[in-house]
Design goal:
It catalyses: a 1,2-diacyl-sn-glycero-3-phospho-(1'-sn-glycero-3'-phosphate) + H2O = a 1,2-diacyl-sn-glycero-3-phospho-(1'-sn-glycerol) + phosphate. It is a multi-pass membrane protein. This is Phosphatidylglycerophosphatase A. Pathway: Phospholipid metabolism; phosphatidylglycerol biosynthesis; phosphatidylglycerol from CDP-diacylglycerol: step 2/2. There is one protein chain. With 165 residues, the chain is mainly α. It has one domain. The longest helix has 26 residues.
Length: 165
């Protein structure tokens, strides 16, 4: 069955390539985790931007992702197929808004983002079930990223030494 979906997408199509996280979403197990990992080199490349530049980059990734994910899901004829991971990339960018991209933050942010994305605590689960199309695919991961971002900011205020190891 997986082969049928793959026949409907092409890595030569730039929209599909981006939605599939440059191919990371095609890994047959834990595609969301590999999509989140694919975000790390992009995050490191964007780390040289000013805070405003990083925010604008995050907004651009998120807004264009609505189209990329929606179009690819339509072409695959499956809503939010696991191989569509641009939403994880956008969620990781949201996770690190106004945070340093140091190893402790990257590890904590990655682990927390995967937990929030998998468990889908309220209201993420509701959004995941009720919204469809590109917006639905993107919004639950953007919200998960926002919740992790808030959590990391809170941790850094309450226990600043914890993220300095």
């Amino acid at each position: 069955m997986q082969r049928v979906y793959r026949q409907r997408v092409s890595m030569k199509n730039p929209v599909h390539c981006l939605a599939l996280g440059f191919g990371s979403g095609l890994i047959p197990f834990m595609p969301g985790t590999f999509g989140s990992l694919a975000a790390i080199p992009l995050l490191l490349a964007a780390s040289s931007l000013s805070p405003t530049g990083f925010l604008l980059c995050t907004v651009l990734i998120s807004v264009t992702g609505i189209y990329f994910c929606g179009k690819t899901a339509h072409d695959m004829q499956v809503h939010d197929h696991g191989s569509i991971v641009w939403d994880e990339i956008a969620g990781m960018f949201v996770t690190f808004l106004m945070l340093p991209l140091t190893v402790p933050y990257l590890v904590a942010g990655f682990v927390l983002f995967r937990i929030f994305d998998i468990l889908k605590p309220w209201p993420i689960g509701i959004i995941d079930k009720r919204l469809h199309g590109g917006t639905g695919i993107m919004l639950d991961d953007i919200l998960a990223g926002a919740m992790v971002c808030g959590s990391l900011h809170l941790i850094s205020m309450l226990w600043p030494a914890w993220l300095l190891w």
